[in-house]
Amino acid sequence: MKTTNSLTRSLIILTGDLGSGKTSGLPFLAEQLGAEKPYFIVNEVGASDRFVGAFNVPSSQLTILPGGCVCCERQDELIALLNVLVERPQSEFDSLILETSGLADPATILQLVSSHPKLTHQLKIESLVYFLDAGSDREAGQLRTQDLKSLAVADICVITKTDAIPLEERTAIVKAVVNANHTIDIFQQRREHDTVVIDFTCPGAIKQASGRLQQVVDDYAEVSGHAHPEVLNFELPFGTSWLALSTWLIGLLQAKDRTILRVKVAIPNHRGWISINGVGSMVFPPDSVDFAHGDERPLGTLVVIGYGLSQVQIVRSLNVFVSDDIKAI
C-alpha cells in the first residue's frame, strides 16, 4: 500500500502582472525562500521549453501549463498535476513553486487548493508572493485595485524593475505596500550588469513582532470577475493561549457560513513568539521563534482573510472561547 507523509512539502505561489518579472527572479527567490530542491510549475501565456535552458532547470523538475489561467480555465489540470506530484518521493523535490499567469487571481488559487483535502494534508502553502512592477505606468506611490486585491492575501511582495525609477518613487511604492498590508515581507528586484538581484527591504509586522494589518478592501470593486476578499485584524493580548486559539481556529475554518482563505497569527509570550498559519480548512502546526522582550509586553496579531466574515461575531466568539481581552482593530 502506498503511504504518503503529511505536511512535508511547501507550496509557494507566485502572482503578478504579465511582464512584472516573475520568471526572471524565480530561481533567486526560490533560494531566498529556502527551497533547496524545488519543482517548478509555470502557467504563462508565453511559457515555453526555453525556460528550462535559461535557468538550468532539469525537465524532470518542471511542468509548463501554457495558455489559459489556472484560476479559471485550467483549474482541473492544475489540481490533477498537484495530486500526481504529491505522490512522488520526497527525495525528488522539497517544495513546489507555482508561477501563475499574469491574469491569475491569488485568492481564487488559494481557495482552489484548500478545497481539496488531499492537497491540504500533503502541501503547506508556505508563501504567496506578489510581484509588483515598479516600472509600469502608475502615479508615484499609487497602487491599483488589482495590486491592493493581491497584496491583501500575500505574504511577500517583490517590487520589480526598481532600477528603472528614481529613489523617491521606490520609497513611495514601498510605503504604499506597507500601508496596504503591514504583515507583508518586501523585496526589491533590479538588474545589475545583466544579472537579476533581489534585495531584502523590510520584514512584515508579524515577523517584526509588531504592527497591525490595515483594512484596505472596504470600497474596492470586483476585479476580473472575482469578488474581493475581506480582511479582518484582531489584537491579541500578551500570553494568549496558542492551544486555545488553535482549537478556536479549527472551529472557525470548519464553519459552513463563510469561506476562509488565510489565517495568520503571531502570539507573544515570555519565551518568544508563536506563529500559526491556516489555509482553507487546515490549521498547520505552530512555529516558535525566540525573541527577548525584556520588560516589554507586546501585543499579538490575528489576521483573517476570506468571504462572508462578520467582525462582530468573530470578536464575540474569541472573547468567549479564547480571551475576553481580544478586540478588533
**Mean pLDDT across every amino acid position:** 75
The secondary structure category is alpha/beta
The helix tally amounts to 10
- Into how many domains do the coordinates divide? 2
Main β-sheet description = 8 strands, mixed
CATH fold annotation of the largest domain: Rossmann fold
Kindly provide the radius of gyration, computed on alpha-carbon positions and rounded to a whole number of angstroms.
Answer: 20 Å
* Topology pattern, helix = H, strand = E: EHEHEHEHHEHEHEEHEHEEEEEHE
Low-confidence stretches: 1-6, 46-54, 205-226
Q: How far apart lie the N and C ends? A: 50 Å
Q: How helix-rich are the residues, as a percent range? A: 25-40%
List keywords for this structure.
seven-stranded antiparallel beta sheet, Rossmann fold, Hypothetical Protein Yjia, Chain: A,domain 2, eight-stranded mixed beta sheet, globular, disordered N terminus, 2 domains, 329 residues, alpha/beta
